[in-house]
Amino acid sequence: MGPSGTSTHTPLRVLHALFTALEGRREAWFVLYDTTLPPDGEAVRRASEYWAAIDGLAAGGTAELLRATGSSDPLDADALKYVWRDLVATLVRWWVKHPEQTPAAMTRRCARLFAAAAGLASAEDAVGSEAPAVPEGAAVGPTRP
Questions:
Q1: Which residues contact 3 (CB under 8 A, 6 or more apart)?
Q2: Which of 68, 73, 80, 103 is deepest in the core (most CB within 10 A)?
């Protein structure tokens, strides 16, 4: 467990709290990311404060989670913050499209998804820790025009 209580279960606790807070008003999540807000208005100023707070929590939590697993690489922490932020937004978007899913059911679903992803990482370890050689500058995965 990390210095402030971060453990491998923390992401599920965070997601459960988020799903519970949004239950009954799931679309409220998207108000924070509304690109049509007037750039100089009170709404965008307030949204920016929330963005900064969310990013601060994500940065601290992901860094602690990595430290709890033995990693202190600041670039890993920065990359994981971005992954976490996009993962949460994607999960909320999926959840909005599936209104029959309760916060508890969604948290259990996330636990299964995380376990599957951890299994993929374990399978990679069994094959070997060497990543396949990718030429520098080569496109990896889908590219956008």
A1: 64, 67
A2: 80
Report how far residue 140's alpha carbon sits from residue 80's, in angstroms, rounded to the nearest whole number.
Answer: 19
> Which residues are CB-contacts of 103 (< 8 A; sequence separation ≥ 6)?
16, 19, 20, 22, 23
Q: Which helix (H) or strand (E) holds 123?
A: helix 103-127
The sign of the dihedral angle between the CA atoms of 48, 91, 139, 72 is positive
pLDDT tens for residues 66-102? 888 888 889 998 999 999 989 999 999 999 999 999 9
Which pLDDT belongs to residue 56? Answer: 85
Q: What are phi and psi of 32, to 5 degrees?
A: -65, -25
Task: Name the token pair of 5.
Answer: 């209580």
* 53 CB neighbour count, 10 Å cutoff: 10
Return the higher-pLDDT residue of 140 and 111.
Answer: 111
- C-beta atoms surrounding 132 within 10 Å: 6
Q: What is the pLDDT of residue 145?
A: 41
